[in-house]
Write a structure and sequence with these properties.
heterodimer; A: Rossmann fold; 7-stranded parallel β-sheet; B: about 30% strand; elongated; binds guanosine-5'-triphosphate; binds magnesium ion; binds zinc ion
């Protein structure tokens, strides 16, 4: 074998995605579209919370949803039937997350001129989606009571990239040893700026606080 | 389980560097992977074997992983400590005012051609 040559690279694998994500955010800013990236474990209540939130906001702002699933379109259909707003399905092709390029491809299928808010329901998973910046204006996550209040300790990256943590399934609190105050404390350790909003998506209780926060965010994004 | 996605990113970057340097075949890729980066080196090398052999440029190309130990710095007392052993709370002074100094890397260090 002839001489081996070494080419130094020293480059983060996420560098290109981070650049794509920044470009996407800049474009969204220019168009006045707010993109929310909603993450959680499978079954924490993303779709149920979204339906409640959309029904509170759809007369005030124009909303569209992108559902990322590994392979089905159950959620996209559910959102459309329950709210009447446009909802599309993105297939991740077996991948456990969405990156900025896949997000952009999804947005190309939405009439952005007709949307103030686009919500991306990411793949149910607390590890992978946190690694990849989708280009969203804001990351939010849902933690449900049965999952336990120690999740911010076990999935530090997810909690450190989210500005809002919605605690869902508050109706089942009596059956679990989930301590809301302790959970707030753990979230604060990961991200002192994160807001914690307890809700029950099943009855709708508390969802108005989340919707009010989101509406304010969208207004600020469009004005500033 | 996002190792496969990361492998596709690595392949994209390596292809680009190979093209810029007029390289026809790459024999080794060296990665720096932080201990708390959430990337599991064994999964990464498994995914790598599968995906790399599908590329002419990377047939048989090895993937070497250097694991970078995670170190946390404490703003309370100014000392460093091992993240994996002690977590978020400083073992020297008990402060929670700490941040990750290194150990989160997912970097392509170099390639051998
Ligand atoms: N008790 C109770 N159940 C809830 C609540 N919110 C959602 N659920 C139930 O939890 C299950 C999962 O809810 P989804 O909204 O589909 O959760 P998801 O996060 O969208 O799930 P994936 O998309 O599969 O990851 C459903 O059976 C819901 O009815 C709640 O506040 N309380
Ligand atoms: Mg869902
Ligand atoms: Zn200390």
């Amino acid at each position: 074998m002839d001489g081996v040559r070494v080419i130094e690279i020293k480059k983060s694998v996420f560098a290109d995605n981070d650049r794509d994500a920044e470009a996407l955010r800049a474009e969204l800013k220019q168009r006045g579209v707010y993109l929310l990236n909603l993450m959680s474990s499978p079954g924490s209540g993303k779709t149920t919370t979204l339906i409640r939130t959309i029904n509170l906001l759809k007369d005030k702002i124009r909303i569209a949803v992108m559902e990322a699933d590994i392979d089905s379109d159950v959620d996209a259909v559910k959102i459309r039937e329950a709210t009447g707003i446009p909802s599309i399905q993105l297939h991740t092709g077996g991948m456990c997350h969405l990156d900025a390029e896949m997000t952009r491809q999804g947005l190309d299928n939405i009439a952005l001129a007709d949307a103030d808010l686009v919500v991306l329901e990411n793949v149910g998973n607390l590890v992978c989606p946190a690694e990849f910046d989708t280009g969203a204006v804001c990351n939010a996550m849902i933690l449900s009571v049965p999952e336990g209040d120690d999740k911010p300790l076990k999935y530090p990256l997810m909690f450190s990239v989210c500005d809002v943590v919605v605690i869902n399934k508050m109706d089942v609190l009596p059956y679990f040893d989930f301590d809301l105050e302790r959970c707030r404390e753990y979230v604060r350790l990961r991200n002192p700026k994160a807001r914690v909003i307890p809700v029950c998506a099943k009855t709708g209780e508390g969802v108005d606080a989340f919707a009010a926060w989101l509406l304010e965010e969208v207004r600020k994004w469009k004005e500033e | 389980m996002h190792e496969l996605g990361i492998v596709f990113y690595i392949i994209r970057d390596v292809k680009q560097v190979a093209e810029e340097n007029h390289v026809g075949h790459v024999s080794n890729v060296v990665m720096d992977i932080g201990e708390v980066s959430t990337v599991i080196p064994e999964y990464l090398t498994d995914c790598w074997r599968w995906a790399a052999d599908r590329e002419e440029l990377l047939k048989g190309c090895g993937l070497k992983v250097n694991v970078i130990p995670a170190v946390t710095h404490c703003d309370g007392c100014g000392q460093d400590y091992g993240t994996v052993q002690h977590g978020k709370i400083c073992p020297h002074c008990g402060s929670e005012n700490t941040w990750l100094l290194r150990g989160n890397e997912v970097e392509i260090k170099e390639i051998e051609v």
